[in-house]
Amino acid sequence: METRVAVISIIVEQEDAIEELNILLHEARQYIVGRMGIPYRAKGISIISIVIDAPQDTISALSGKIGHLKGVFAKTAYSNVITPAEGGNTGLIRIAVYGKGGIGKSTTVSNVAAALAEMGLKVMQIGCDPKADSTILLRHGEAVPAVLDLYNEKKQALQLEDMIRIGYNGVICVEAGGPTPGLGCAGRGIITALEKLKELGAYDVYKPDVVLYDVLGDVVCGGFSMPMRGGYADKIFIITSGENMAIHAAANIAMAVENFKNRGYAGLGGLILNRRDVPREEEKVAELADDFHTAVIGTLSHSGQVALAEEQKKH
Question: What is the pTM of this model?
Answer without folding.
Answer: 0.71
